[in-house]
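re: ur question from earlier - yeah i can do the single chain one, its not a big deal. heres the input i used so u can compare w yours
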Amino acid sequence: MPVLVADMGGTLTRTKVLVIGMMDSIHLANWLRHFSSEPVDFQIIPSSPMRRVHTLIRQLANSNSNATYSWSPWLVRAALPIWILDRILDRRLMGRLVRAKNDIFKPDFVHALEIQGAGYIARRAFHKKRPLKSVHVVTNYGSDIF
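and the output i got, formated as tokens:
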């Protein structure tokens, strides 16, 4: 069944999902792959200091699938220094980056895929003072389960 969202005029549009997750994770890659035949636009933000993108995520981004997958290459390259500074600032830096990407991308859903990194970043980004207008989902996955 296609994943479509109606806009204010009732017109069906592609679903936009902002994903916060570990870019080097097979778990994130497999989750994204489930939507490759759907009309979904994914914007991915790394939640960990790893500076590589999993091979499957790269393959998905370069495929002719119905879904689109994109991320900011500079954010992946600068993940380690950002992560170190973010720990000093109690996740405020990544929270602001996620909030800014949310304001620009205007997703229908925000999905934080794992709790220890992405979940805490999302919590910082969407605190009570600036409530989230899109649906926000946090799931445990992969290494979170143990």
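The radius of gyration is 15 Å. not sure if urs matches, ping me
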